[in-house]
Amino acid sequence: MLKTVVCVSGGGTNLQAILDAIDSGKITNTEILAVISNNAGAKALERAERHGIPGICMSPKSFADREAFNEAFTAKMEELSPDLVVLAGFLVRIPEQMVSKFSGRIINIHPSLIPSFCGVGYYGLKVHEKALERGVKVTGATVHFVNEGMDEGPIIAQKAVAVEQGDTPEILQRRVMEQAEWILLPQAIDDIANGRLEIVDGHVRRV
Ligand code: GAR
């Protein structure tokens, strides 16, 4: 069983896609140990509770400084000791010490085709605002391993989604979720849980 911790910040629709995929057998060999949110009001925590999964709230705002949060967050993760950490719309930067302790065991979903529209300042709805501002005709989503950089780790999977005339950031966000994110993220977890992925020379390969 792949012991997994999911980190969230808001609505938790990606978390819901993971939970549904476990229920329907699309993800196998996987157990969600806990859901961690940096936001006590996150709807994602309700989704976890409804599923009988412990919800933990850890916000940088409740610590004296970022270093104190980073230490506590890393310590909590070590205590939970997951095989995999899934960032499912987690809008807090992962501490460097946690990246190195969980090297190759943290994955993230990002709502664009990396390397477009990613890095510092590109998160949530902002990504879609920027894509529309630029006038791209195709966008999408990416699942990748997390390294010390921002949205720079080895890419696991990507899926393209068409931008349509008249799209608002909200409409585009929803389409990218439905057509890409909710499919890619559960698939990546199932692939990892069943030993189908490996990293060779910084690139992900299917085995
Ligand atoms: C998703 O679109 C996810 O890709 C994005 O936040 C949203 C969370 O939605 N993540 C990032 O922007 C990370 N840089 P959700 O809470 O409904 O799953």
Describe this structure in words.
This protein is of the alpha/beta class and 207 residues long. The protein has one domain: 3-Layer(aba) Sandwich (Rossmann fold), CATH 3.40.50.170. It is 37% helix and 25% strand. The protein contains six helices and nine strands, in the order βαβαβαβαβαββαββ. The strands form two sheets. A seven-stranded mixed β-sheet has the order 3-2-1-4-5-6-7, covered by helices on one side. The chain has a two-stranded antiparallel ribbon with strand order 8-9. Strand 1, helix 1 (13-24) and strand 2 form a beta-alpha-beta unit. It is globular, with a radius of gyration of 16 Å. The two termini are 19 Å apart. The model has no long low-confidence stretch (mean pLDDT 97). The site of glycinamide ribonucleotide has 17 residues, from helix 1, strand 5 and helix 6.
End-to-end distance, in Å?
A: 19 Å
Please work out how many helical segments DSSP would assign. 6
Q: How many separate structural domains?
A: 1
Kindly provide the name of the CATH class. Alpha Beta
Annotated CATH topology: Rossmann fold
The average pLDDT score comes to 97
- Distinct ligand kinds: glycinamide ribonucleotide
**Strand tally, please?**
9
| Class from helix and strand fractions | alpha/beta
The CATH homologous superfamily: Formyl transferase, N-terminal domain
Q: How much of the residues is beta strand, in percent?
A: 15-25%
Strands ordered across the widest β-sheet: 3-2-1-4-5-6-7
Gross CATH architecture: 3-Layer(aba) Sandwich
Order of helices and strands: EHEHEHEHEHEEHEE
What is the CA-atom radius of gyration, in angstroms? 16 Å
Largest sheet: 7 strands, mixed
Q: What general outline do the C-alpha atoms trace?
A: globular
